[in-house]
Predict the structure.
Amino acid sequence: MGTLTIRMDDKLARELERLARRAGRPKSEIAREALRRQLAIQRFRTLRGKLMPYAEAAGWLTDEDVFRDIS
């Protein structure tokens, strides 16, 4: 398992501390979850960017276009 040390401003540190206390979870668990979500968002954006030319060629310009044609 790797280790990551980060610096954050006081306000963010207080928010993280409050959230951890309310959730009854360690700060590191909350930070890992946030990082996982951010990485998933980045993977989605990258994939979407690669697929957009194909979607546009098929006439799909919005999410509604995709769902309309799939159903």
Notes: Helices lie at 10-23, 27-57, 63-70.
